[in-house]
Amino acid sequence: MSAQRELFGTYRPRDNWLHRVPVGAKGLALLVLSVILMLPWQRWIPGLDHPWPVPLACVVLLMILGATGGVGWRSWWGTIRPALLIFVLLAGYHVLVGTPHRGAGVLLTVLGAMFATRILLETTPQAVLLDGLVRLLGPLRGVGVKPERVGLAIQIMLRAIPYLLGVVADVRSAAAARGIRMGPVRAATPAVIAAVAHAQRTGEALAARGLD
């Protein structure tokens, strides 16, 4: 799996019901899910003593829905793997301080949000997502916000991330071929240089089109 497909994934074209759901409906479902994950249900539901059952149910439901839309185990593992160390550290902390149930609730809440984002990004083309964001920001024109420019900025950012990941991977591969082991600090130096150069080229291209 390529670096840019890790964590949240990218669009995978398929012909199924989940891919055909309008982006507005997906965004609304994501908002509702976020509210469900954040609310303290154990305070309101009799017999629910711990915070983890509700986010667990959400995670299971998301996996079932994802499976019907072609999001498989590799995609779920691609979401978990980059954050696995953080999950382990977070779980270890809650075990040590004696709050494993709360830790399980936190982990499942984060996982539910990540899985929902994965489904959204794998079943919706990037252009459709950006168009939906521009329409969503439309009412803010009255306060000076320019939705098209916001969408353009996000598109530039999304295109820059895979480029920078590729730069870091190329630098490490070149160093490994020469028997040089590069730590995060040494690998960051060429990435910063490449980021600055990429930003300058992007700025010049935008200025040439009158978008500066």
UniProtKB/TrEMBL annotation:
It comes from the Bacteria. Coiled coil: none annotated. Its main location: membrane. It is a multi-pass membrane protein. It is found in: Membrane. Keywords: Membrane, Transmembrane, Transmembrane helix. GO terms for cellular component: plasma membrane. The keyword Disulfide bond does not apply. The chain crosses the membrane at residues 21-41, 53-73, 80-97. This is Energy-coupling factor transporter transmembrane protein EcfT. The lineage of its organism: Bacteria, Bacillati, Actinomycetota, Actinomycetes, Micrococcales.
